[in-house]
Amino acid sequence: MTPPRLDIDLAAIAHNSRLLVDRLALKGIRVTGICKAALGSSGVAAAMVQGGVTGLGDSRVENLGRLRTAGVAVPLTLIRSPMLSQVDLVVRDAEVSLNTEAAVLDALSAAAVRTGVTHSVVLMVELGDLREGVAAVDVVDLARTMGKRPGLLLTGLGTNLACQCGVVPDQRKMDELSRLAGEVEAACGVVLSVVSGGNSANLDWAMSTGDVGRVDELRLGESILLGTEPLHRRVIDGLRTDAFTLVAEVIEAKLKPAQPWGDIAQAAFGDQPPREGAGTVRQAILAVGRQDVDPDGITPPPGIVALGMSSDHLVVDVGDHDVSVGDELAFQLDYSALVRAMTSPFIAKVERS
């Protein structure tokens, strides 16, 4: 397969899934694998299932539809509050959705009745990160109304931290979620089967706490796909970081001055940091750009330094590497770069078991 491409190692994804599933099982926590960065890839989904996840989640109902068409056998969860315009798709392609708005719940109820299904709902609680969530003081009242919505079944509470403002999921936050789960059960006469504590940012808390409380599920994406935790981007012990590799082709290789010359204004994407060094550098251009990947999220091979990226060109200093036109260079990706690369139609995706 010609570059640019993403080489995807499904065995690495299955390995990471299995280690995290087994470690969290000792705490009584199951894993929903979040494959939104994989754009509905049935191969990535199957690798997560092979690794033991009990369900899969995605923020785009279109991706869930791809997984449903591919015959994925585990429950599917829409992890973004449904759009009113997509409620029929949601109840068709997802067993569960995360919700915060009464108007959306009303529309989901009507869609479920129209299609003759029962759709499960997890109410999301705002615990400080200021993204989605019902205020803690209002969640019991909203939960009480669920019995008036035919076709819907209240199955859980959840929260999300560290995505918008970087708020750390700690013992105090998780204790509050557990307390609210108990209040909802007492007020509504139900037993919640899901108390979803959050995402990969919860791993430090989950593995170090002596009391997980009512939290019985985590929604893990970055940790499975990249082997890192989101709070500090540290590699998780025992996990592989090579599941995704971006491969790009060299289209120019020349000796060039280290510094530009002439009057300097803004570059294509605004002000650029000044180049370092003097004399000449062995510069190469690769056929990949900001249309395809986040330039701040790629790590070049040792001894190679990224000098800049425009829409369609990545310029690097290859140092002592012997690089010629037509050669391929491989880059590691962080989560931001992975999401953009998976979305780019110009990057081929090659899955290997």
UniProtKB/TrEMBL annotation:
GO terms for molecular function: alanine racemase activity; pyridoxal phosphate binding. Pfam families: Ala_racemase_N (PF01168). Gene3D superfamilies: Alanine racemase. Residues 8-224 form the Alanine racemase N-terminal domain. Keywords: Isomerase, Pyridoxal phosphate. The keyword Coiled coil does not apply. This is Alanine/ornithine racemase family PLP-dependent enzyme. It comes from Phytoactinopolyspora alkaliphila.
